[in-house]
Amino acid sequence: EAFGVLEHLAATGPLTVTEAARHFGRSQAATSEIIARLEARGLLVRYPDERDRRRHLVWMSQEGVDAWRHATRVLSTTMLSEAFAQLTSEDRADLLLSLNKLLDSKPNEGEQP
User: Fold this and answer.
1) Mean pLDDT along residues 30-46
2) Are residues 13 and 68 in the same domain?
Protein backbone atom coordinates (compact mmCIF):
# COMPACT_ATOMS: atom_id res chain seq x y z
CA GLU A 1 0.00 0.00 0.00
CA ALA A 2 2.71 2.49 0.99
CA PHE A 3 4.89 1.58 -1.96
CA GLY A 4 1.93 1.94 -4.34
CA VAL A 5 1.24 5.47 -3.11
CA LEU A 6 4.90 6.46 -3.29
CA GLU A 7 5.25 4.90 -6.73
CA HIS A 8 2.20 6.75 -8.04
CA LEU A 9 3.43 10.06 -6.62
CA ALA A 10 6.85 9.49 -8.17
CA ALA A 11 5.18 8.97 -11.55
CA THR A 12 2.64 11.81 -11.37
CA GLY A 13 4.04 14.40 -9.00
CA PRO A 14 2.04 16.05 -6.21
CA LEU A 15 -1.72 15.49 -6.21
CA THR A 16 -4.79 15.96 -4.06
CA VAL A 17 -6.36 13.27 -1.89
CA THR A 18 -9.33 13.25 -4.28
CA GLU A 19 -7.04 12.61 -7.27
CA ALA A 20 -5.27 9.82 -5.38
CA ALA A 21 -8.62 8.27 -4.38
CA ARG A 22 -9.74 8.31 -8.00
CA HIS A 23 -6.52 6.64 -9.15
CA PHE A 24 -6.63 3.89 -6.50
CA GLY A 25 -10.36 3.32 -6.82
CA ARG A 26 -10.97 3.95 -3.13
CA SER A 27 -13.16 6.34 -1.22
CA GLN A 28 -11.75 9.72 -0.34
CA ALA A 29 -12.02 8.81 3.36
CA ALA A 30 -10.05 5.56 2.93
CA THR A 31 -7.41 7.30 0.83
CA SER A 32 -7.15 10.14 3.33
CA GLU A 33 -6.58 7.58 6.09
CA ILE A 34 -3.80 5.88 4.11
CA ILE A 35 -2.17 9.23 3.39
CA ALA A 36 -2.47 10.26 7.05
CA ARG A 37 -0.67 7.06 8.11
CA LEU A 38 2.11 7.69 5.61
CA GLU A 39 2.30 11.30 6.74
CA ALA A 40 2.59 10.15 10.39
CA ARG A 41 5.47 7.89 9.35
CA GLY A 42 7.18 10.91 7.80
CA LEU A 43 6.90 9.63 4.22
CA LEU A 44 4.43 12.24 2.91
CA VAL A 45 3.72 15.92 3.45
CA ARG A 46 0.65 18.03 2.65
CA TYR A 47 0.94 21.63 1.56
CA PRO A 48 -1.32 24.30 0.03
CA ASP A 49 -1.57 24.39 -3.77
CA GLU A 50 0.13 27.61 -4.90
CA ARG A 51 -2.48 28.08 -7.64
CA ASP A 52 -5.47 27.49 -5.34
CA ARG A 53 -4.82 27.88 -1.61
CA ARG A 54 -8.09 26.07 -0.80
CA ARG A 55 -6.61 22.84 -2.16
CA HIS A 56 -3.88 20.85 -0.48
CA LEU A 57 -1.43 18.67 -2.35
CA VAL A 58 0.26 15.52 -1.14
CA TRP A 59 3.91 14.87 -1.94
CA MET A 60 6.77 12.75 -0.72
CA SER A 61 8.94 14.08 2.07
CA GLN A 62 12.69 13.60 1.67
CA GLU A 63 12.30 10.48 3.80
CA GLY A 64 9.57 9.29 1.42
CA VAL A 65 11.77 9.93 -1.62
CA ASP A 66 14.60 8.01 0.05
CA ALA A 67 12.25 5.11 0.94
CA TRP A 68 10.89 4.98 -2.61
CA ARG A 69 14.40 5.00 -4.10
CA HIS A 70 15.48 2.24 -1.73
CA ALA A 71 12.41 0.14 -2.57
CA THR A 72 12.90 0.53 -6.31
CA ARG A 73 16.56 -0.40 -5.95
CA VAL A 74 15.63 -3.49 -3.93
CA LEU A 75 12.91 -4.42 -6.43
CA SER A 76 15.16 -3.85 -9.44
CA THR A 77 14.86 -6.69 -11.94
CA THR A 78 18.58 -6.57 -12.65
CA MET A 79 19.49 -6.83 -8.98
CA LEU A 80 17.01 -9.66 -8.44
CA SER A 81 18.37 -11.50 -11.49
CA GLU A 82 21.92 -11.15 -10.24
CA ALA A 83 20.96 -12.36 -6.77
CA PHE A 84 18.97 -15.25 -8.25
CA ALA A 85 21.98 -16.29 -10.33
CA GLN A 86 24.05 -16.64 -7.14
CA LEU A 87 21.70 -19.28 -5.73
CA THR A 88 22.29 -22.98 -6.19
CA SER A 89 19.84 -24.76 -8.47
CA GLU A 90 18.28 -26.39 -5.39
CA ASP A 91 17.84 -23.00 -3.67
CA ARG A 92 16.32 -21.54 -6.85
CA ALA A 93 13.83 -24.39 -7.05
CA ASP A 94 12.91 -23.92 -3.36
CA LEU A 95 12.48 -20.18 -3.85
CA LEU A 96 10.28 -20.62 -6.91
CA LEU A 97 8.16 -23.18 -5.09
CA SER A 98 7.72 -20.79 -2.16
CA LEU A 99 6.88 -17.86 -4.42
CA ASN A 100 4.30 -19.92 -6.28
CA LYS A 101 2.72 -20.93 -2.96
CA LEU A 102 2.62 -17.28 -1.96
CA LEU A 103 0.97 -16.27 -5.24
CA ASP A 104 -1.54 -19.13 -4.98
CA SER A 105 -2.54 -18.00 -1.50
CA LYS A 106 -3.27 -14.37 -2.42
CA PRO A 107 -6.90 -13.19 -2.31
CA ASN A 108 -8.81 -12.99 -5.58
CA GLU A 109 -8.96 -9.60 -7.29
CA GLY A 110 -11.31 -7.31 -5.41
CA GLU A 111 -11.39 -9.43 -2.24
CA GLN A 112 -10.24 -7.92 1.00
CA PRO A 113 -7.38 -9.84 2.68
Assistant:
1) 95
2) yes
Whether the full predicted model's pTM is greater than 0.70, yes or no, is no
Bridge partner list, 60: 44
Q: Which residues make Cβ contacts (< 8 Å) with residue 14, sequence separation at least 6?
A: 57, 58, 59
Domain hosting 51: range is 2-72
Same domain, 94 and 80: yes
Please say whether the dihedral angle defined by the alpha carbons of residues 22, 26, 30 and 35, taken in this order, is positive or negative: negative
Distance CA 6, CA 83 (A): 25
Q: Measure the CA–CA gap between 35 and 42, rounded to whole angstroms.
A: 10
Phi–psi pair at 53, nearest 5 degrees: -60, -15
Mean pLDDT along residues 13-18 = 94
